[in-house]
Amino acid sequence: RPLFLYIFLFYWHFLNALFTVEAPQSLLTVERGNNVTMECTFPVNGKLEFRDLSISWEKKDELKQVYVLHKGKEDFKNQHSDFKGRIKLLKENLNLGQSLLQITDVKLTDAGVYRCLILYGGADYKTIHLKVKAPYRIINQEVVSTGHNEWKLTCQSEGYPEAEVIWENRNYEDLSNKANTSFETGSDQLYHVTSTLTIKSGIDEIFKCIFRNKELQES
């Protein structure tokens, strides 16, 4: 019996060595509200036998089940409520050895590490890191006179992840260290950013505020 077990384990590891799952893109960044498709590939070697194919997608860092295909049949009974109605496996690509998982109406909470596990003769998995952003597109500006040639300039915006606010004059001098910037987060998980710069200047001067996302290197 020990010899049989040894041979079985050797054969199993040999099969797994031949069966390899790949992730063409291990890092994806998507904008909140858009759709995203994550992909992992696997060897088919001829005609795909659906009854022999099992696929599991889960959000690895939170142990949330996203999608399960068990021996060719979809199984949603243990799918986490975060993903209900927003998940689709593009089955037409399975014959090509592609497991394409689409998430619609992406939310900030969808960000994280996903694991794609495939069993088809052998077994293997890969992980994909999904980042979600909400750009600081709309910037509300306010200018208030506080005295003779004295002004309070305010810029407000919201987005994700947290951004730094850079203030410049027409000569591109950095005035950010003179500004007061505050951050708040609401139930929508967005950062609500308010930055105020008080300056002495004539009315012909030009100032601008720039919201820069350090993590994503975007402005």
UniProtKB/TrEMBL annotation:
GO biological process: cell surface receptor signaling pathway; cellular response to lipopolysaccharide; immune response; negative regulation of T cell proliferation; positive regulation of T cell proliferation; T cell costimulation
Signal peptide feature range: 1-17
Keyword Oxidoreductase among UniProt keywords: no
Cell wall biogenesis/degradation keyword on record: no
Recorded superkingdom: Eukaryota
Cellular component terms per the entry's GO annotation: external side of plasma membrane
Location in the cell: Cell membrane
Membrane topology designation: Single-pass type I membrane protein
Keyword terms of this UniProt record: Cell membrane, Disulfide bond, Glycoprotein, Immunoglobulin domain, Membrane, Receptor, Signal, Transmembrane, Transmembrane helix
SUPFAM superfamilies registered for this protein in UniProt: Immunoglobulin
Domain (Ig-like) ranges: 2-129, 135-219
Protein's recorded name: PD1L1 protein
Species assigned in the record: Sitta europaea
Gene: Cd274
